[in-house]
Design brief:
Radius of gyration: 14 Å
Number of strands: 0
Largest sheet: none
Oligomer: single chain
Order of helices and strands: HHHHH
Distance between the termini: 21 Å
Shape: elongated
Number of helices: 5
Structural class: mainly alpha
């Protein structure tokens, strides 16, 4: 679910700014998921899913990124109505919880 090697690499690269990067990531993902829930099925969905996929990969949310990639492919293929947004949201929540729990354990 979480690529901890990616997280460790990002933490090493960002140093003291890592916490801020995490905060911005969580806020931007929340905003994008809200947009997805409020918009009509269409091309904007693919763009939001593409953004989410990239952001998720940068922070090591591999399972969430895979679902976003799947949804992006469906939306780009004219099948946006087949994107399971509930599953995307659930994956994000599970990944976020695992990430935050893992960070706390690693800090201890």
């Amino acid at each position: 679910m979480i690529d901890w090697n990616q997280v460790d690499e990002l933490r090493s690269d960002m140093g003291d700014a890592f916490g801020e990067v995490v905060e911005v990531f969580l806020q931007e993902v929340d905003d994008a998921l809200l947009r997805l829930s409020q918009q009509e099925v269409g091309p904007a969905m693919a763009a939001d899913l593409h953004f989410l996929k990239g952001a998720a990969l940068n922070l090591g949310f591999t399972s969430f990124a895979a679902l976003c990639a799947e949804g992006e492919e469906l939306a780009n293929g004219g099948r946006a109505e087949q994107v399971n947004l509930a599953r995307v949201n659930a994956s994000y929540r599970e990944s976020r919880d695992a990430f935050l729990t893992g960070l706390a354990r690693r800090a201890a």
